[in-house]
Amino acid sequence: YGSGHLHQLNLDGQLISDMERDDLHREIFRTQGKLTSCFGYDSMGRKAWQYATTLPAEKLSQIQNPLIKPERYVEHAYNPIHRRYEYDPAGELSRTLDKLRGETQYEYEANGQLLARNTGRVVDGEEFRYDAAANRLNFNTSRFDHVKDNRLKQWANQEYKYDAWGNLIEKVVGIVRWQTFTYDCENRLVKTETMADTQVESTSNYQYDSLDRRVAKQSEIKGHTDHKRFLWQGLRMLREESPGQSSLYLYEPGSYAPLARVDEKEGEVENKVYYFHTDQIGTPLEMTDAEGQIVWQA
């Protein structure tokens, strides 16, 4: 596309996504199955809003009129997903408005460390405090305690234990659920065990390649054994394989932000394509199928 920017992505002749860009080569439209995702930017080039709509792409140029306030078309009834972002004078994200998650506000210290995350709901709000070395402090009801040896021992209803190398070896949630973690001589996680009400709920074992990338996982969940293999392209996971099925991951160009997942299952003629919808920094928040239905959300 133009000076080398991606315009279309297809896999073995199967169209995955079409992209349109503005005069600055920033992506403004992206087809995702029966949905079209649209993106807008502020004067600093930061993502200001995004939405996924069921309206056909040819009608979007009629809707996105510069004389109309963005919230009018971002929050349109045809959009199953929409988000707006606001930033403070220091460039930090200060507010998000999300159709599925509501409003979230962020507060920061002068050095940019996150101080609070407010959703307007008491159970979802979070506060953070740090020591002079930027280590997070323990939160204990009404006061913040210093973290000994830079190891967080308690957070909300969770308790943590560590080995001599600082690896997390036990996590207790409430009084009925806990996890144990085992590491090899290179401090790589090789085994996890989850207990619930004194019963073993699941056990997982992990293997790595010479570059410390996880390449295999074997899980025992309530008597059922599951095997998975992971293939990599640099530091991006390219493919996930298990008996009878596999998943191929596609990413935005030059980024770790996932764009789509293509599932192949033994005995099925056609692959299934799922699309990721990320936030302003590329974190996946939703996944939709080819029909535009949300099948997963964070």
From TrEMBL:
Keywords: Repeat. InterPro entries: T6SS_VgrG/RHS, TEN-like_YD-shell. The keyword Transport does not apply. It holds the Pfam family TEN_YD-shell. The keyword Repeat applies. Residues 98-295 form the Teneurin-like YD-shell domain. This is Cell-wall associated Rhs protein with YD-repeats and PAAR motif. The lineage of its organism: Bacteria, Pseudomonadati, Pseudomonadota, Gammaproteobacteria, Pseudomonadales.
